[in-house]
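Q: Structure tokens for this one, please.
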Amino acid sequence: MASLGNGLYMTGGAVYFVRKVGLSPGQVGLGLSIAGVLALPIGVPVGYLADRFGPRGTTAVLALGKALMLTLAAFVHSFATYVVVAAVLGVAENTGHVARGALVAGVMGRDGRVRLSAYMRSVFNGGFALASLAAGIVIAVDSTGAYRGLFFGNAAAMVTVSALYMRLPRVPGVRPEGRERSGLGALHDVPYVLVAQVAGLARIGPTIVAVGIPVWLVTHTSAPRPLAAWLTLINTLIVVFLQVRAARGADTVPGASRLQRWTFMVIAGACVITGFSRGVPGWSAGLILAAAVVLFTFGEIWGEAARWGLRYELAPGKLQGQYGAAFAIGDAVALIVGPTLVTAVPDRLGLAGWLLLTALFLAALALSRPAVQWAVRTRPVAPDTP
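A: Here is the predicted structure, written as tokens:
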């Protein structure tokens, strides 16, 4: 249900703010960027609250906060009000992921948390795709009432989701001790933060598929332009049908570490393949890009599975909230720099730009295993060595 609401908002909301509110596409993008930047540091205290008072209630409250901001979004009338609403909405959305991760860990335990995360991501992508198609109808109607109905429907979905969260088993809160009492203890765990930074680099891969390849296709190749949308569909279908299978073995540190290395290898290879699509005629270029997208997507599903395993297994069992928030800070490079990196560098340098991206992922590959091993050595109760 949440994925349906998100798909409707992300696809139709941006069009509403441009068509009916009068914002420029740049202003819409700026609001989303501000939301992403704010969510990273705010996630840490929210994670602390999830640990202290229990993740179930924290997650439910954040869903209600999102419902409120979606309702207010329907009445945005200026760039200033849009920035405020988009920022608060983005913070509620992204910190909600942190609290929900702690809830999954508390409800499912070690044996089921990675597998459930994989199921959730698979279902989310399927729902998001269906909602995007439905949003296309709203965009075709192109009336203020239809767009506002989209916001209100999403808000109602969030209220329902909040109620469903409260039907889950209660996960008791804990009183942190020592350094963790400040809510910043996870940020002092340097090996854990380093693992998070390395894992976050893998999330540049999905940004390449969503932004980098479509821009590259239409500006630097002779591939048919509609293929830009069809390649995204290939990505979605692979995630929906293979994410659960890809997560097998990721519930241990050695398994997750191995998947992360596979992730960086295939993403690096996909970057090289993408670069060679330039100068190739028509559908041949399209086939090259399709092969690259398949590789990028396998890197994505392996990378997400590895991320769950490392995020959960290397964190103290009772501090999954604040440690999950610290892990999310590792997304900073992908979130802030990623869109510019995957568009501007190949655009200016061509094949050399894709080779520079390849070098970035090979560097991440080189760091991956040592970072995880360091984190394992510094755990009070060390997991298995990767």
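A few notes: The two ends are 37 Å apart (CA to CA). Residues 183-377 form a domain with the Growth Hormone; Chain: A; fold (CATH 1.20.1250.20).
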